[in-house]
Amino acid sequence: MLPSMPSPDRERFLAEPRVGVLGVTDSRGGDRAPLIVPVWYGYEPGGDVVVQMGRETIKARLLRAAGRFSLCVQDEGRPYRYVSVEGPVTAIEETVDPALREALARRYLDPEEASAYLVATADQLKDDIVFRMRPRLWRSADFSAFAADFAEAGAGQDGS
């Protein structure tokens, strides 16, 4: 069994600025796997996951059709950790609040880069859309305990 994170830890982990991998059912027909794409997202413990994207993108069309999505975030450093959430789309905002767009840019970029990005991509405000998702199912793993056990086992060996 994977060592899962307690609820407050997994919510804090999800709230940290990480690139998320969004997954949504691909309903375009044929034998397609789910669409899986990296995204910037926002999250505050106890709230909704918020993602912004172009309103005419494949992912936006699939999100509208599916009405739900998954998001997975990870820490690639040792010891490995991840949180995955899935749930229903709770709101679709056809107009992006400039404050939300700025908060997302500042979450992922340093201050100078964020300012330049916001100026360079100002037209996105009219072309983008926001999806909100309420996490209903959580999956998580934190391998810190395993790492500590391995470290202790290694420390106990004398090399002979």
**Shape, per Cα inertia axes:** globular
Q: Give unreliable regions as ranges.
A: none
CATH architectural designation: Roll
Mean pLDDT, rounded to whole units? 90
- Count of β-strands: 8
Gyration radius over CA: 19 Å
At the fold tier of CATH, the topology name is: Pnp Oxidase, Chain A
Query: CATH superfamily, called what?
Result: Electron Transport, Fmn-binding Protein, Chain A
CATH class assignment: Mainly Beta
Note the total helix count: 6
Number of domains: 1
> Helix/strand/pairing class, anyone?
alpha+beta
Strand fraction equals 25-35%
Say what oligomer this is. single chain
Run of helices and strands: HEEEEHEEHHHEEH
Helix content: 25-40%
Span between termini: 33 Å
Pfam family, one: Pyridox_ox_2
Keywords: Oxidoreductase
Organism: Streptomyces albireticuli
GO molecular function: coenzyme F420 binding; oxidoreductase activity, acting on the CH-CH group of donors
Question: How would you describe what is shown here?
Answer:
The protein is α+β, with helices and mostly antiparallel strands and 160 residues long. It has one domain (7-95, 127-150): Roll (Pnp Oxidase, Chain A), CATH 2.30.110. It has six helices and eight strands, in the order αββββαββαααββα. It has helices at 7-15, 58-66, 98-108, 111-120, 124-127, 144-155, and strands at 20-24, 35-39, 41-42, 49-54, 68-75, 81-93, 128-133, 137-142. Strands 1, 2, 3, 4, 5, 6, 7 and 8 form an eight-stranded antiparallel β-sheet that branches. A hairpin with a 6-residue loop joins strand 3 (41-42) and strand 4. The two termini are 33 Å apart.
